Amino acid sequence: MAGKVSAVERAIGILRAFETRDEWSLSELVDHLDLNKSTAHGILATLVADRFLLRDPTTLRYRLGPALIRLGHLAHEQTDVRRIARPFMETLVAETRKTVLLGTFHDDHIVVIDKVDPIGGLHVSATIGQHIPFSAGSFGRVFLAWMPSSDVDRLIARHGLEAFTPATITDPDELEAELAEVRRQGYAVDDREEYLLGVRAVSVPLRGVDDRVVAGLTIVGFTARSEDQPGEVAIKAALEAADEISRRLGADL
Questions:
Q1: How many CB atoms neighbour CB 151 within 10 A?
Q2: For residues 93 and 118, is the Cβ–Cβ distance under 8 A?
Q3: What percent of the chain has pLDDT above 70?
Q4: Could you tell me which of 51, 81, 80, 88 has the C-alpha nearest to residue 66?
Q5: How far apart are CA 130 and CA 220, in angstroms?
Q6: Tell me: the pLDDT tens digits for 103-131?
Q7: Torsion angle of alpha carbons 183, 171, 218, 128, nearest 10°?
């Protein structure tokens, strides 16, 4: 089939071999998949280096590694979040007549995993799969507020606090004060156009098992239309939806 890469296909074949057995040796994989031994050894070494596989130093046998466990957990979690959150998002859109975004945090970014737009009116340009900076307005703050402070410091040290608009918070101390307020009230508001000019938003955290924040829900409005800006009604509706979604995700609220 056009577009396939043989080396990637071989790597996938090796990983899928673990669907039938917990452990394999190099020679067993070579025989099972009809691979060149040196090619298989190189692929295995790469998968071990990136922790997709682990190699027992005594038996020299391979088994699945923590990187795959993490990816599998994320895939399951995101599928669950989308499935559970979707009807609540549709209700929020009907109640508020504003766009609702669902995002998770991965690789130092917020990833938009679902979106519902109101019928007619203005729509937000965000698309499913889009990466949004970690410090983007209220969306970013509902993730940062419940992260360990060391993780927040790492993100700032690695990426800085980008000034998206003149109102963006770029001072780490000011950001920490904002995060403390988000934790206190249980939601985040961008009512100063901190991320996008002409756009205001309210965001709420979605929690899973152990009350861990697994996703964020954001309602977006436009400053050009006073009736379209998220207000107290939108905040109340978002918090109620977040509580119910979180319970269904396993949070003990």
A1: 13
A2: yes
A3: 91
A4: 51
A5: 16
A6: 999 889 999 999 999 887 667 778 999 99
A7: -130
pLDDT given for residue 69 in this prediction:
78
As a whole number of angstroms, the distance between CA 187 and CA 218 comes to 10
Q: Residue ranges of the alpha helices (H) in the chain?
A: 6-17, 26-33, 37-49, 66-96, 137-144, 149-159, 172-185, 232-248
Which domains are assigned to the chain? 6-64 (1.10.10.10), 71-248 (3.30.450.40)
What pLDDT score was predicted for residue 60?
95
Q: In this predicted structure, what is the pLDDT of residue 79?
A: 66
pLDDT confidence band for 230 (50 / 70 / 90): low
3-state helix, strand, coil in the chain (%, to 5): 45, 20, 35
Question: What is the token pair recorded at 211?
Answer: 């009350």
